[in-house]
Design goal:
The longest helix has about 35 residues. About 70% of the residues lie in helices and about 5% in strands. It contains 3 helices and 2 strands.
Amino acid sequence: MDLSKTPGRLATEAADAIRALNYKTLNDSYEDPPAAGEAAYALKPLVERMPQALQQLDAALLRFDANDAIRIGSVHVVEQRFFRSSGGRVRAGCSRLRAADRW
């Protein structure tokens, strides 16, 4: 874990890794059940940690918004509904993963 990187850099690297995984497995490229299991084991903590990351980002953006710190010209950038709805989808995904915890 490299804590010298900025939150933005860490998030970008995580997004890039998931994008690569999506492309790599687009045409069912898991060689065998152990390969799929390895990916499932690796993704489980990612899915479980995502709600915390979104909640912490949401809290920071709300704090910045309360201080009018986030603007592009005269327009506020923070849109609470996005983070609340994204977090809800992630929480639902985590619940489904925990319910299907067969590995």
